[in-house]
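Researcher: We plan to redesign the surface later, but first we want a full-length starting point. C-alpha cells attached.
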C-alpha cells in the first residue's frame, strides 16, 4: 500500500526551505525522488544562476542550449570571481539565451577598464529587460565612474544596489 501523497503546498514549502537554506545540492536529488517535484526543483535551481569561471559559463551555456525550457526559469545571473579569472564574457555568451533576465549581480574583482571591460559594457546594452543591478564586494578595483558606466549599460535599469562597494 502506497502512502498518501503530500499536499503540494507542503512539498513546495520543503523544497523552498532547502533552497533558502543554501542546500541547492539537495534539489537535484529531490527531483529524482518524485516526478511531481521536478518542476519546482528545476525552478529553484535555475532562477538564480551563478557563474564563477569560464568552465561554469560553458556548462550553463550548454545546458541552456540543450534544454531550452530552462531559459525562461532564469531571472538572475550572478558573476563572481577573482582578478584574471572573472567571467567577463558571460553577458555576450548568454545573450542568445537570457536576454529577458531581470537582475544582473556582479561580485568580486570586476574590471571595467581595458578591452574586457569595454566588451562587457557593450554587451550589457542588449539586456533591455534588466531592471535591477547589484554590485557586491567590488570595491578594490572599481571606481564610482565604473559603477556609473556599468549602470548606464542597462537601458531599462530601475534599481542599483551597492553592497560593500566603493569603500
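Model: Full-length starting sequence:
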Amino acid at each position: 500500500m502506497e502512502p498518501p501523497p503530500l499536499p503540494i503546498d507542503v512539498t513546495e514549502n520543503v523544497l523552498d526551505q532547502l533552497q533558502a537554506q543554501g542546500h541547492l545540492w539537495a534539489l537535484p536529488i529531490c527531483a529524482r525522488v518524485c516526478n511531481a517535484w521536478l518542476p519546482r526543483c528545476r525552478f529553484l535551481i535555475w532562477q538564480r544562476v551563478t557563474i564563477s569561471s569560464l568552465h561554469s559559463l560553458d556548462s550553463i551555456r550548454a545546458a541552456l542550449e540543450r534544454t531550452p525550457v530552462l531559459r525562461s526559469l532564469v531571472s538572475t545571473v550572478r558573476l563572481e570571481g577573482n582578478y584574471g579569472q572573472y567571467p567577463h564574457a558571460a553577458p555576450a555568451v548568454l545573450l542568445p539565451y537570457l536576454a529577458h533576465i531581470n537582475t544582473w549581480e556582479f561580485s568580486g574583482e570586476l574590471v571595467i577598464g581595458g578591452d574586457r571591460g569595454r566588451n562587457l559594457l557593450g554587451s550589457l546594452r542588449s539586456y533591455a529587460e534588466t531592471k535591477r543591478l547589484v554590485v557586491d564586494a567590488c570595491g578594490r578595483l572599481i571606481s564610482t565612474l565604473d559603477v556609473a558606466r556599468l549602470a548606464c549599460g542597462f537601458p531599462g535599469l530601475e534599481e542599483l544596489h551597492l553592497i560593500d562597494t566603493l569603500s
